[in-house]
UniProtKB/TrEMBL annotation:
<feature type="signal peptide">
    <location>
        <begin position="1"/>
        <end position="20"/>
    </location>
</feature>
<feature type="domain" description="Heavy metal binding">
    <location>
        <begin position="48"/>
        <end position="74"/>
    </location>
</feature>
<dbReference type="GO" id="GO:0046872">
    <property type="term" value="F:metal ion binding"/>
</dbReference>
<keyword id="KW-0732">Signal</keyword>
<protein>
    <recommendedName>
        <fullName>Heavy metal binding domain-containing protein</fullName>
    </recommendedName>
</protein>
<dbReference type="InterPro" id="IPR045800">
    <property type="entry name" value="HMBD"/>
</dbReference>
<dbReference type="Pfam" id="PF19335">
    <property type="entry name" value="HMBD"/>
</dbReference>
Length: 86
């Protein structure tokens, strides 16, 4: 009887451990999935350009290497791009 009780306790304990360990992992993965499913904003390729030098393009905000002016965000003009494609 003692042996059976020991096994039962062992199973119960290991089961509880797996349950306890499995729950947070599932919750974390679920949260990650939810985040992936509904992204708040698409990480669009934002480019920064200089007002004086349109040929200066940077993926990060900074200063123009030519004149030192602060780079401004270049808005991705979708309509323009489509017109350009055609
Ligand atoms: Zn410039």
């Amino acid at each position: 009887m003692k042996k059976v009780t020991l096994i039962a306790v062992a199973i119960l304990f290991s089961g509880a451990t797996v349950f306890a360990a499995g729950l947070p992992v599932k919750a974390v993965s679920d949260t990650t999935k939810t985040k992936k499913v509904k992204p708040v904003a698409k990480p669009e390729k934002v480019q920064y350009t200089c007002g004086m030098h349109p040929d200066v393009l940077s993926e990060k905000p900074g200063k123009c290497p030519k004149c030192g002016m602060e780079l401004v965000k270049k808005e991705p003009a979708k309509k323009k791009a489509e017109t350009m494609k055609m």
